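Hey Z.,

So I finally got round to the adenosine monophosphate thing we talked about over coffee. Here's the setup:
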Amino acid sequence: MSLVVVGSIAFDAVKTPFGERERMLGGSAVHFSLAASFFTDVRVVGPVGDDFGGDEYRVLHDRGVNTDDVEHVEGGKTFFWRGHYGFDLNMAHTDETQLNVFGEFQPKLSEASRSSSTLFLANIQPDLQRDVRAQCTGAGLAGLDSMNFWIDTARDSLVKAIGGVDMVLMNDAELRMLTEQPNLLRAAREVISMGPRMVVAKQGEYGAALYTESGFFALPGYPLETVVDPTGAGDSFAGGFLGYLDAETDGEISDQTLRRAMTYGSVMASFNVEEFGTERVRRLTHEEINRRFEEFRSMTHIETVPLESR
Ligand code: AMP
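And the result:
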């Protein structure tokens, strides 16, 4: 089994009430890959510029992430995002987005990436998401994320991209914005009517809710006393969720597997936010993940209640 992800590979400048970093490795595909790498083989697709060097590759390679399809654009600059958070850490404020090498990017996937069993279209221009979806003919399971920036600037293309995937994982506020539905259940149903089988509404520190055509399942966030930088929490959730699904399923996905995938997603997100950028996940071990998974499972009794049908 293997998982391919396309999304931003970035340098981030982030300020939170607990500190700041002027330039650190980030990007949706990077946070996703690192989290998913604890569960399955991961291949990352995206462009980088001359400023992306050995130190950045090392972070990915240390976790066994395959970077053969990372394209180095000669003379280019890597995608850059600057953002800040106030005391409400659920709300990211974007101060600057420089697309840089993404401006001209034409994804060219290797045969190994095209035939991966699972595909994640992380947050990036929806035209690129559609292009990659069309190339990945081997993917039996495809997920997608997006954000307000693309809902504002490329909504029609995003709706088409959503039509080509099995599951959408987005923030609750972005699902409301996309569908213009204030009610989250209605918003999720409207997204399901665009094509996918499932929607995961990420709700920051409050957890995540899963909607299928006939079922609903929700988990709180893992209770943490120290949250330093929420950047990448959503991508880490998606990496744990889809990484576990890629490793555990072959065709049909049972309710129990979905519940466990949600739990692993929450666990990976909880580690990500404990420090800036990728700092915590770089040092993470399987033992720490399993310990937190078991602890969270016993807090939430996730195996005992069947998915409610409604
Ligand atoms: P999240 O998991 O939602 O916190 O995603 C955080 C990552 O998204 C950061 O590391 C940024 O580099 C990246 N990002 C921010 N804006 C965009 C954008 N417009 N397109 C793609 N990636 C972005």
